[in-house]
Amino acid sequence: MQLVSADDITAAERRIDGRVVRTPLLACTHIGDEYGLDLWVKAENLQHTGSFKARGVLNALLALTERAGRPAGLAAFSAGNHAMAVAYAGQAYALPTVVCMPPHAVPTKIEAVRRYGGEVVLTDDLLGTCEAIAAERGYHLLPPFDDPDVIAGQATIGREILADGPPPGLVLVPVGGGGLISGVAAAVRAAAPTARIVGVEPATANAVGHALRTGGAAPATPPQSMADGLAAPFAGRHTLAHIRALVDDMVEVAEDAIWGAWWELLDATKLLVEPSAAVTYAALRTGLVAALLLLGAGAGAAGLAVATGGGDAADMIGAYRTGVAGQAGITLISLAYAPNAAIWAASYLLGPGFAVGVDTAVRTSEVSVGALPAVPLLAGLPSGPVDGYGAGLLAVPVLAGMAAGWLLARRLLRIAAEDRAEVAWPALLVPAALAGPVAGLLLGGLAAASGGPLGGGRLAEIGPVGWQVAGVATAVVAAGALLGAAATRTLRAKGRAPS
Question: What is the average pLDDT score of the chain?
Answer without folding.
Answer: 84
